[in-house]
Amino acid sequence: MIPSAFDYAAPQSLSEAISLLQGNAGQAKVLAGGQSLIPLLKFRLAGPELLVDLRKVPALDHLEERDGHLAIGAMVRESALEHSALIASRYPALLDTSSVVADPLVRNYATVGGNVAHADPANDHPATMLALRATAIANGPNGQRTISIDDFLVDTFETALAPDEVLMELRVPRPAAHSGSAYVKLERKVGDYAIIGVAAQVTLDGEVCAQAGLGLTNAAPRALRPREAETFLVGKRLDEESIRHAAELAASAADPVSDLRGPADYKRAMVRTLTTRALRLAAQRARQA
Amino acid sequence: MAVAVQGMGHSVKRKEDPRFLRGKGNYVDDLKLPGMLYMDILRSPYAHANIKGIDASRALAMPGVLAVVTGKDLDAAGLAWMPTLMSDKQMVLPVDRVVYQAQEVAAVIATERYIAADAITQIDVDYEPLTPVVDPIRALDPSSPLVRPDRENKTNHIWHWEAGDKEATDRLFEQAAVVAKEDIYIPRIHVCSIETCGCVASFDRINGKLTIWMTTQAPHAIRTVFSLVSGIPEHKIRVISPDIGGGFGGKVPVYPGYVIATVASLQTGRPVKWIEDRSENLQADSFARDYHITAELAADADGTMKALRVKTVADHGAFDAAANPSKFPAGLFSICTGSYDMQAAHVEVDGVYTNKPPGGVAYRCSFRVTEAVHAVERMVDSLALKLEMDPAELRLKNFIPPEKFPYKSATGWEYDSGNYPAALHKAMERIGYQDLRREQAEKRARGELMGIGISTFTEIVGAGPSHTFDILGIKMFDSCEIRIHPTGSAIVRIGVQTQGQGHETTFAQIAAEELGLPVANITVEHGDTDTAPYGLGTYASRSTPTAGAATAIAARKIREKGKLLAAHLLEASPDDVEWVDHQFQVKGDPSRAKTMADIAFAAYTNHPQGMEAGLEAVDYYDPPNLTFPFGAYICVVDIDRGTGEVKIRRFLAVDDCGNIINPMIVEGQIHGGLTMGMAPALLEEITYDEAGNIRQGTFMDYLLPTAMETPAWETDKTCTPSPHHPFGAKGVGESATVGAPPAIANAVVDALSHLGVTHMDIPIKPWMVYKVLEEHGLAQP
Ligand SMILES: Cc1cc2nc3c(=O)[nH]c(=O)nc-3n(C[C@H](O)[C@H](O)[C@H](O)COP(=O)(O)OP(=O)(O)OC[C@H]3O[C@@H](n4cnc5c(N)ncnc54)[C@H](O)[C@@H]3O)c2cc1C
What we know:
The structure holds two protein chains of two kinds.
Chain A: E1 7-9, H1 14-23, E2 28-31, H2 37-42, E3 50-53, E4 63-66, E5 69-73, H3 78-82, H4 85-90, H5 92-98, H6 104-109, H7 112-117, H8 125-131, E6 135-140, E7 143-148, H9 149-152, E8 153-155, E9 158-159, E10 166-173, E11 179-187, E12 194-205, E13 208-217, H10 227-233, H11 240-253, H12 264-288
Parallel strand pairs in A: 1-3, 2-3
Antiparallel strand pairs in A: 4-5, 5-10, 6-7, 6-10, 8-9, 11-12, 12-13
Chain B: H1 17-21, E1 37-43, E2 49-55, H2 57-60, E3 65-70, H3 71-76, E4 81-83, E5 89-91, E6 97-98, E7 104-110, H4 113-120, E8 124-129, H5 136-139, E9 157-164, H6 166-175, E10 178-189, E11 198-204, E12 209-214, H7 219-230, E13 237-240, H8 256-268, E14 272-275, H9 278-284, E15 288-299, E16 305-315, E17 344-352, H10 369-387, H11 391-398, E18 407-408, E19 414-415, H12 420-431, H13 433-445, E20 450-458, E21 470-471, E22 474-475, E23 478-484, E24 490-494, H14 503-515, E25 522-525, H15 544-570, E26 577-580, E27 583-586, E28 589-594, H16 596-605, E29 616-621, E30 630-639, E31 646-656, H17 663-682, E32 714-717, H18 735-752, H19 766-775
Parallel strand pairs in B: 1-14, 12-13, 16-17, 24-25, 31-32
Antiparallel strand pairs in B: 1-7, 2-6, 2-8, 3-7, 4-5, 9-17, 10-15, 11-12, 11-14, 15-16, 18-19, 20-30, 21-22, 23-24, 23-29, 26-27, 27-28, 30-31
């Protein structure tokens, strides 16, 4: 449980952080909350030569609405999300997610940016970000760029970020009127990664679904958007029948593997169950909104 | 006026808690000695492999590395193997082959912990992988590769053990109207004490004394074994077991790390610290359970139980390194007739070697009692299904009746006392059993699933009487030494060793009760072989039955002398002095009385001529029998039809552990035990893939329950004192761990029984339940 030797830097500015990353091409790693990276170091599964800690870099921990979207600074801790009145009132899926990531101790350190940048298909936020149609703001030697969440999440532990780029912010479009969202997670125990997790967001026009977003945790090598299910829902009355059909489509889009969390066919069935439950909850919240 | 002693029956706050709560505990890893070196251990990635060579040159070249110890080095000193507590032998470090994954291969001694950790990655080991033996049943096939070619017998079969009357049992089975039969696997699990194992070995070259601070539950026995193996005289070895962060049976065995660190200290003349990390602890330290059981229960058509037949294959891993009493290689598994009056029973167990770490430690379950209770309690429910009888009714029909105690069981135990119907009736009333059954029927009609599970277990603890019980020949008595100081306070030293059970409080209460001294004035000490009297240590719920009894009896010896001193002070004849309300008084005259404090002062200042000064006593208590705590547990579960998750709605534990010293501590023991009992029922298991790789080697997959998974336990009690224990106590540390798993498993099976389910192996995982629901069209999002 003792990592191999590494250097550590806590730069005071973004430009310093980026030049440290650039100057140690491929050998440096950004350190955020450390709740995924430090275990990897301790198991000696990763051995970067330099950790560039972002905690002193200014302006990475904002959590506010701006220009029609919610801006989540990359260093916002899960616990900040969990206790924010703004999140509770308008972004229930984010509240659902942050309150089931790991356990309260981990959430005091773990960051939303790290959760997405780690690109573990078992992490909870990527699916929610898919359902909420978020975008990622990155900054590197060539300046700032905006990446849609679908493009950002490339594969298991792989994102669109270059090794010398820093994830700055996640942007979540402000939900339209009569929208509701939810994240439901099935886990073996508290603090466990999801057996399966499903995020859903719907916008209602009367009883008809005007917009739908879905995201699946741990159902494929990366967080998965079940597109057919989303497309199917748009224009349908959001009743038990259409919800069940969408859940069926989501289950067939899933590509889970058998492991200690259960056999693949069980997990696929859980996509069906949890999609149904997430959509029911999102629809109920949309009706109340 | 009577002294406020706060003895038996008081919920005295734990004396040890202030230091733990303030972070002032003193654990092995807190110890820092001048010049101390650090050890880290390289472990095998293979479950079974030849070692063709070990090249440590790169590690030895690292600054700060003093030595790399291998099996060859130890072999030269005759220490490559060590005896286990089960009279097997175990590799300390391998000379030419490894026999399980995570087995110790070499050790680095360095000036810093970090250097040692880096250096083990620089040792090159040339392995030649061999076919691993993973399945214990296939291990018995003559064509199976051998785990232990070092043994004379060229087989993986270790021993065969049986109890009961085979013929009588078979005859009853032939005549039986109904026979229930199940294959029951009890998974391999790990104790996972919060503190991992470790030691600081410090050999003083000047006075030739070896001191070892060690995470051990049994310091005295360890000292004796170390002395016998090393040839160092016993008075030149001091084992200190300081604060221990949980033991649960996992800290009874001797681990190779202790021995290697000791050898390193002997060779360097410097203290050597070794502390396992979490993964090492979880992957390599002795495991529990791992019983493959086939059980059959025979009964008349009216439900009268006749006989029990049990065959078991016990997976012991590569070394038989458990700590069972020597005549009991399968522990007290033959208690498996449980709380039921049967004419005959026959139990067979075959111990088997596999390429896994040593198994079979008694994880908070006396010795194999969890296995026994799980088997019989599952079988009773299975029989109830066959008979279409309510499982509570079947139990009440077959309980050993209260008037039959002391009761001789079909496998030869003499149960000391019990009142099983009283406990079950109390539990059924309190939980509203009949209402729950009605609710269940209504729910079933709607397709909803709930289950009610009962476990009415009998424990067997307090090993044990010297005519039957020993470990490596050392009889399983235990001890206490009490010395009363002139001003009326006392020190109590005991041979057992707390790891969180609260001995500093409860043993003070026992002494307080017997001596009439306030509990606050009594210090309890243990765990240092230079100062504490000899004892076998704390495990198997034996502390109160053995050392607790010794404490009471030592105190009574002091009272004998105290009576003479009281007579002297009161100018009365000793025959006219009696012990009433915690003090001596002249018969019939409470105005003429002396407290123990008065007596103590006199013992040093004013003792009668001809009497020895001082006030102290020792007792080595050899229990006449074991004690048999019991309980009635009822669990109610709801099943999520969308996910197969089992939710414990209610769990009521009615326990009977005889007379209680400290109700709060007993309640705490039960709460903790219930959570540890729920764990293997729903969460914990250790499994291996075909290559012998552990699948749950970290807490990511070894699902230790937390407060979040723990339901709100409900507890209650009945009290049936032990007739042979000096103050009627029975021991309680393990009851709940033993009693809980079948209550939960029975509840889940009960929820699914109308679908034809008669048994499910634990841990019952959501996907297993979901599969049943799907097959019967009951799954619903
Ligand atoms: C016991 C435990 C249980 C857990 N359970 C869950 C769970 O149930 N669900 C879940 O989703 N997660 C879980 N986690 C993971 C936890 O949420 C992680 O903290 C999170 O995934 C990563 O966030 P972090 O801030 O800790 O990132 P770090 O560990 O610091 O970094 C993770 C990775 O992201 C990179 N990175 C981080 N921030 C940036 C950035 N701004 N720009 C570029 N790269 C960056 C790092 O270089 C690293 O590769 C658990 C962790 C633990 C220890």
